[in-house]
Specification:
Elements lengths: L2 E6 L5 H10 L5 E6 L6 H5 L4 E6 L6 E9 L1 E6 L27 H9 L5 E4 H6 L5 E5 L6 E8 L5 H10 L19 H20 L28 H9 L3
Parallel strand pairs: 1-2, 1-3
Antiparallel strand pairs: 3-8, 4-8, 5-6, 5-7
Length: about 250
């Protein structure tokens, strides 16, 4: 049995694949990249259990969790007058020809390189299909695109929810629906915290700072004769006494 993931071009699912492999080695996760034009085809056919898609999509019969936004960029010929700008606005593109949009983003970028015009793409897609003869310039006032994780309503089970938890950063022990958890402590830090809690409990029980007070062993208290450490015995003690001339 495997869990099947589709992801639209421009999304990099590597970190979630690694996290899933560490958490669920018993359930392999198979990922397949799709073009935006067919980003829901795998979900509709049942070939994908989940998919990273770009909104908006027809979400009837789907669960969808919006995740992050992508900056829009203008992909331009390298010799274009705006190619060296740090950013542009949509008004800067008024009157400029646009490249014919293709089903595959790589083909659209190829048409830009051929001089047919500019293309507006999500930054992740432009980065994926970068070429030496084009540049990608951020568009300051263009609406960003949003990536979401979707899956079918009837496919909503514990395995799906566990992957949703991985994507949203939930710990392996967290309950369904929580977005985050307290970070797991290392054994050393956990021991320190437990010791501090014990000291606090002892102090509260004694009505004061633990280990303080007259006659106590704490700082400022008189030391009792009985508080001296017992003399050491054994071979190690005899050797020390011999060196000291005792």
């Amino acid at each position: 049995m495997t869990l099947r993931l589709g992801y639209v071009a421009g999304v990099s699912p590597g970190r979630w694949l690694r996290a899933w492999g560490e958490r669920r080695p018993d359930l392999p996760l198979v990922a397949e990249r799709t073009e935006q034009a067919g980003q829901l085809d795998g979900i509709a056919s049942g070939d994908h259990d989940l998919a990273f898609v770009r909104l908006p999509v027809d979400d009837e019969g789907l669960h969808a969790i919006p995740l992050w936004e992508e900056v829009a960029v203008a992909v331009l010929e390298k010799e274009h007058p705006l190619a060296e700008a740090e950013s542009i606005t949509l008004a800067d593109l008024d009157g400029e020809p646009s490249a014919p949009v293709q089903a595959e983003a790589a083909m659209t970028v190829e048409l830009v390189a051929a001089g047919t015009g500019y293309a507006i793409l999500p930054h992740g897609v432009a980065r994926l299909h970068h070429r030496r003869d084009v540049v990608a310039v951020p568009i300051a006032d263009a609406s960003p695109t949003q990536v979401a994780l979707v899956w079918r309503v009837e496919r909503d089970d514990d395995d799906i929810q566990e992957f949703v938890g991985v994507v949203r950063g939930r710990g392996s022990r967290s309950s369904r629906g929580q977005a985050s958890d307290e970070p797991t402590l290392s054994p050393a830090k956990a021991a320190k915290r437990a010791a501090a809690e014990r000291r606090a409990a002892e102090a509260a029980k004694g009505g004061g700072k633990a280990g303080s007070g007259k006659g106590g062993g704490g700082k400022g208290g008189a030391k009792s004769k009985d508080s001296r450490p017992a003399p050491r015995t054994g071979r190690g003690a005899k050797q020390r006494n011999r060196r000291r001339g005792r």
